Each structure stands twice: as structure tokens, then as C-alpha cells.
Amino acid sequence: MKCLLLALGLALVCGLQAATVPPAMEDLDIRQVAGMWHSVAMAASDISLLDSETAPLKVYVQELRPTPGDNLEIILENHACIEENIMAQKTEDPAVFTVDYQGERKISVLDTDYTHYMFFCMEVPAPGTENGMMCQYLGALTLVVPRCPLVPLTPSWRDRSWGNRAGHQRASSAA
Q1: 25 found inside a domain
Q2: How many C-beta neighbours within 10 Å does residue 59 have?
Q3: Quaternary state and partners of this protein (predicted)?
Q4: How far apart are CA 115 and CA 94, in angstroms?
Q5: Which pLDDT tens digit goes with each residue over 109-134?
Q6: Do the domain assignments include residue 19?
Q7: Rounded to the nearest 5 degrees, what angle is found at the Cα of 59, between the Cα atoms of 56 and 62?
Q8: The pLDDT of residue 49
Q9: Is the model more confident about 104 or about 15?
Q10: By C-alpha distance, which of 52, 10, 20, 15 is closest to 130?
């Protein structure tokens, strides 16, 4: 039920054509957001920001690492399965950060329970307007199927893998 409400909130907040980000969390403890996360849902005020595989803001958060200076290192994966590290600089508001990612941008953490979900938005210039917004709902990393292949699928790899597996199955069925 929580996921449904958060997904609905994400759709409503980001579906608006407003240029302002909803208020950030008042008492964010940056140390508690450290860890592995995964992108569950994305939305934008202008669909062109996310509508293709090569859309510039179609990125998948992998991990958040607070630094000793209360900045936030964000490890993400882009559309080409290339890992990128972005340093989010703290501001006076503990839930608002600035990043230099395809231009100067502001990220606001709207809500989190520190263990299961995080909801954030990033101000972005949208085509034809001065301001736009891209939001993501992050979930705690549990069992997640990787988006990108971990092993290159070459014929020699497939042959060895299936050959060993088939041999194992024959041996166990003969017993």
C-alpha cells in the first residue's frame, strides 16, 4: 500500500507542469541514507527528458555515499550501462543538494524512511520552458535483476555454461 501511495504521489507531483519542487524533508539525516538503492520509478514534467533509452536524465541510482563533509556521492548507471559518480554538494537545507550533471542542478530529498524508500526530485531545464522537474522513487536494494549483463554473452561462454549444466542434469537424473 505504501508503494502504491508513493507511486501515486510521484505521478501527481511530477505530472504537474509547475516549475517549483515540493518542499524538501525538514530533518534529513544524510548519514542514514548511505547504502545500496535502486530506481523503482521515474517521472518528469516533460516526457522528452525520459522518453528514450538515450534520454539524458534516464539514469538508475545504485548507491548513495555520504562524505565526511556532509556532501553526497551518488553512484548511478546511465542508459549505456556505464557507472558514473556524481558529487552532490550540501546547501544550507540538509535535504537539498546541488550537482553539476549536464549543467548546474538542484536535488531535493522529499521523503525517506531511511531503510525502504526515498523520494527525490531534480530541477532541470525542459525543452521549451525555463524549468522542469525529474523525480525518482528509490527502493532499498533487495533481490534485483540487473539491467545490464554481468557476463558478456559470447558463444564460447554460452556453450560452456549450457554444456556444464546439461552434464550436471544428466548425472543427477541417472542417479
Answers
A1: yes
A2: 21
A3: Monomer.
A4: 18
A5: 999 999 999 999 988 765 555 678 88
A6: yes
A7: 160
A8: 74
A9: 104
A10: 20
CA distance 52 to 142: 27
Say how many domains are in the chain: 1
Place of cell 546511465: 78
Residue 88 burial by CB count (10 A; 0-12/13-18/19+): exposed, middle or buried? buried
pLDDT in tens, 128-164: 556 788 899 999 866 555 666 555 544 444 444 444 4
User: How far apart, in Å, do the first and last CA atoms of the chain sit?
Assistant: 48
The answer to whether position 77 is within a domain reads yes
Q: What residues make up the domain containing 23?
A: 2-147
Q: How buried is residue 135: exposed, middle or buried, by Cβ count under 10 Å (0-12/13-18/19+)?
A: buried
Predicted structure pTM score: 0.68
Instruction: Let me know if residue 43 belongs to a domain.
Output: yes
Q: Are 40 and 137 in contact (CB under 8 A)?
A: yes
Q: Which residues pair with 99 in a beta bridge?
A: 105
Q: Please, what is the Cα angle at 98 between 81 and 147, to 5 degrees?
A: 15
Which residues pair with residue 72 across a beta bridge? Answer: 66, 88
Query: Comparing 6-10, 71-75, 127-131, which segment has the lowest mean pLDDT?
Result: 6-10
- Write down the mean pLDDT value for the chain: 75
What is the pLDDT at residue 77?
86
